[in-house]
């Protein structure tokens, strides 16, 4: 089926935005967040373009399914899953060569057991820390113990340490962000003193790239800015961005009508009574014929409670109706 309304992704704009990010952060590696189908721009197409042009070094995903989709599309770049995997996800992720985060002792055990099951060794993992967001990640004071637990498995290699900055894009969050950066820096010091260097330390999201150079470390993880949007109206424009998405549609019907002094009024334009403010249904009933007004009132008295279910999914089609996107990390 062909839909008249279509989203068009400008891959050249994404490449230019990533070039601007590289120019700003220097020699740091760049992870392009392509979770939620590349923020609606097409994760496979964006990742293929990044790999072909060298615009980014890693794709970052939120779910195992997103990572597997990239592998099935032929993406060979290292892929980082930004949120933890559990249960059957773990062996599926390792089999696809997806790098997983460790967030607690249980996740160390799960990933190590899956590596044994698959006959793998030298499996890279990244230790995710909670430096203040209070969402996903180990407490910094647990970092040394978890790093040593990773080393003790004989199957896993601690390739990275990372955390997330929730309000780095807002000037009002500057002090909080600086506190997170200091806490992350101190945790790196204690872990590396206890067990040696960790190759990749990463903290900066789009707000970090734009406004907090001290958060860049070894790798940066821009998200929304890759696609041409600044994360907040008050974020600085230290990297010039080009919008990468445009929508087109087709007019389905155009009609000329004679000019007239009369027109229909909508229910919103009709006079209201004070009760309408508390009972919006009264407005709708007033527009119905008298015979239907009483029926509608009776239906409302006997109708069971409305139970709505939210549907979360991912967009696999570049045009037409879309499910709500789900992401993480």
Task: Please give a structural write-up.
The protein has 329 residues and is of the alpha/beta class. It has 2 domains: 6-247, Alanine racemase (TIM Barrel, Alpha-Beta Barrel), CATH 3.20.20; 271-300, no CATH class. Helix content is 36%, strand content 14%. It contains 11 helices and 12 strands. It has helices at 11-25, 35-39, 43-53, 64-72, 89-95, 105-118, 143-152, 174-195, 206-211, 281-286, 290-302; strands at residues 6-9, 29-33, 58-61, 79-81, 98-102, 123-128, 156-162, 200-202, 219-220, 245-248, 312-313, 324-325. The strands form 3 sheets. An 8-stranded parallel beta sheet has the order 8-7-6-5-4-3-2-9. The longest helix has 22 residues, at 174-195. The two termini are 34 Å apart. Mean pLDDT is 87; it is low at 305-329.
Amino- and carboxy-terminal Cα gap = 34 Å
Integer count of domains: 2
- Described by the principal axes of the CA atoms, the overall outline is globular
Oligomeric state: single chain
Class derived from helix and strand content: alpha/beta
Number of helices: 11
Range of helix content: 25-40%
Strand order of the largest sheet: 8-7-6-5-4-3-2-9
* The CATH topology of the largest domain: TIM Barrel
Supply the CATH superfamily name of the largest domain. Alanine racemase
Series of secondary-structure elements, N-terminal to C-terminal: EHEHHEHEHEHEHEHEHEEHHEE
Key phrases:
about 325 residues; TIM Barrel; eight-stranded parallel sheet; two-stranded antiparallel ribbon; 12 strands; globular
TL;DR?
The chain is 36% helix and 14% strand. With 329 residues, it is α/β, with parallel strands linked by helices.
């Amino acid at each position: 089926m062909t839909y008249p309304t279509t989203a068009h992704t400008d891959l050249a704009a994404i490449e230019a935005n990533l070039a601007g990010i590289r120019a700003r952060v220097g020699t740091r590696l760049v992870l392009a967040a392509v979770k939620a189908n590349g923020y609606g721009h097409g994760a496979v197409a964006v990742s293929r373009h990044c790999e072909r042009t060298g615009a980014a070094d890693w794709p970052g995903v939120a779910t195992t399914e997103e990572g597997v989709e990239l592998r099935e599309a032929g993406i060979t770049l290292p892929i980082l899953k930004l949120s933890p995997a559990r249960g059957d996800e773990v062996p599926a992720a390792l089999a696809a060569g997806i790098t997983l985060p460790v967030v607690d002792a249980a996740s160390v055990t799960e990933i190590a057991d899956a590596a044994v099951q698959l006959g793998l060794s030298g499996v890279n993992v990244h230790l995710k820390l909670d430096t203040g967001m209070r969402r996903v990640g180990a407490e910094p004071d647990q970092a040394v113990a978890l790093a040593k637990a990773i080393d003790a498995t004989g199957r896993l290699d601690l390739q990275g340490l990372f955390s997330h900055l929730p309000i780095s894009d807002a000037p009002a969050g500057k002090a909080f962000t600086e506190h997170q950066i200091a806490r992350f820096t101190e945790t790196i010091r204690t872990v590396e003193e206890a067990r040696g260097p960790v190759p990749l330390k990463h903290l900066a999201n789009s707000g970090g790239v734009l406004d907090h150079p001290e958060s860049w470390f070894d790798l940066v993880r821009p998200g929304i800015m890759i696609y041409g949007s600044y994360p907040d109206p008050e974020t600085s424009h230290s990297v010039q961005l080009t919008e990468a998405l445009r929508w087109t549609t087709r007019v389905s019907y155009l009609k000329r009508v004679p000019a007239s002094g009369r027109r229909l009024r909508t229910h919103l334009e009709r006079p209201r009574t004070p009760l309408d403010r508390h009972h919006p249904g009264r407005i709708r009933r007033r527009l119905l014929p008298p015979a239907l007004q009483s029926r509608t009132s009776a239906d409302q008295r006997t109708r069971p409670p409305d139970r709505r279910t939210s549907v979360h999914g991912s967009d696999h089609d570049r045009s037409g109706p879309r499910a709500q996107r789900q992401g993480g990390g």
